[in-house]
Structure formats: structure tokens, C-alpha cells
Amino acid sequence: MKLLILNGEQVENGDIVFAKFINNKNTYFANRFYNEDSKKEYFDSKGNNMQKAFLKAPLDFAYISSHFNPNRMHPVLHTIRAHNGVDYAAKRGSPVRSTGDGTISFAGRRNGCGNEIVIKHSNDYTTRYCHLQKFEKNITNGKKVRQGDTIGFVGSTGLATGPHLHYEFKIGDTRIDPIKVRLPSAEPVSKKLKPSFDTLIQENNLMLESFNELSSYENE
Ligand SMILES: [Zn+2]
């Protein structure tokens, strides 16, 4: 076990295994732990996940060209039609990422959505991606994906005036504005692994005591 962060500076190359920081007089601890599926994640000392279950957006370089709007004039059909998602204008071929861990429940061509991917996530969350130019290889029904994995590429298949990504976010059967939704935290430490996590926390606390020169990182 190595301490790699000192005064907020990385002192050694490698992973952050443990970090303490103070923000508005609140002290936070982030502990690296390999949860179920051996996935590397960061948790607070109680085992709550520090990360969100979903990325804010499925694209890195894009701007919103059309917001979630129940009364939108459709740009191709020229009728009032609910816009149940967010459009991101982006260069054709830009990689589209899964915003959360989940399982592909649909990958194929369908109606106005064009090349479409639907991903089922835990807790009845679903995300949907439309107008893709093509799919990432190996993206088929039933394939498991992780947050940030590339699943396809921006295109203009289906009813689209130009290359963009149409992105939808659903909880149960209700479509939610992905920009306004309060994103849930990722899964906490699993029950099964909680005992070994608690051992890690004890070790991390001992390490913290022995490195009492570790001063707090004041985050403005
Ligand atoms: Zn759209």
C-alpha cells in the first residue's frame, strides 16, 4: 500500500489508493476498492460510492442543439412532437459512450431513430442513443458495457437533418430530461465484500495516523 497524494500533489506515479481532502470544513475520504466484477472504484469510509452512476453526457466534445421539450416543432416532420431527449451536435464519427454500467438490450436499425442502442442499467434506468453512423464492434444484444465504454459513432441515420446524437434517459417507463435529472450515486460496496472493505478502511486509517504530516488540501 502506497501513499501517493501529499498536500494535494501527486508524489508518485500510479493510482490514488487513498485521499483525504477538506472542502467547506467537511472532511472527505476516498478509498480505492475493487468492488464486484473487480471494477476499480472509490468509496467514502462508509462504503458509499464517490462516483455517479451516470456520466452527464455521452459525448466529450459536443454542444446541445435541442433540449428536452414536450412541445417541440419537429425539424423534419414539421409537426408538434414531444422531444423526449437531448440532441448533441457533434462531428460525424465522434465516439458515443455508455453513460453508465449496463447491458445492451437493443442494437439495430429502427424507424426514425436510425441506428439505435438501448442500454438497461440497474434500478430500472434505461438510456437510448439514436442516429448512430455505426456501432462499435462487439456491441450486440446482451453485451455488458461499463460507464465510458464506446458503443457507437455519431451519424445521421433515421430522421435527422445532420449528424447529431439523440440521447434519452428513462426511469421505468418515464422519460426524464437527462440534463435536469439528479444523477444517482453508483452502487455502494457490496454486502459480500463489506468485511474486506472494512479491513481496508482500518488499514487506511492507520496509514493516515502514521503519515500525520499529511496536511489537508483546502479546496476553494
Ligand atoms: Zn432528438
Word description of this protein:
- The chain is mainly beta and 220 residues long.
- It folds into 2 domains: 5-51 and 186-210, Nuclear Transport Factor 2, Chain: A (Roll), CATH 3.10.450; 63-176, Distorted Sandwich (Glucose Permease (Domain IIA)), CATH 2.70.70.
- Helices cover 8% and strands 41% of the residues.
- It has 1 helix and 17 strands.
- Strands 6, 9, 10, 11, 12, 13, 14, 15, 16 and 17 form a 10-stranded antiparallel β-sheet that branches.
- The radius of gyration is 21 Å and the shape is elongated.
- The two termini are 29 Å apart.
- The model has no long low-confidence stretch (mean pLDDT 87).
- The structure holds zinc ion.
- Zinc ion binds at residues 66, 83, 85, 87, 166.
- Zinc ion is lined by residues 66, 83, 85, 87, 166.
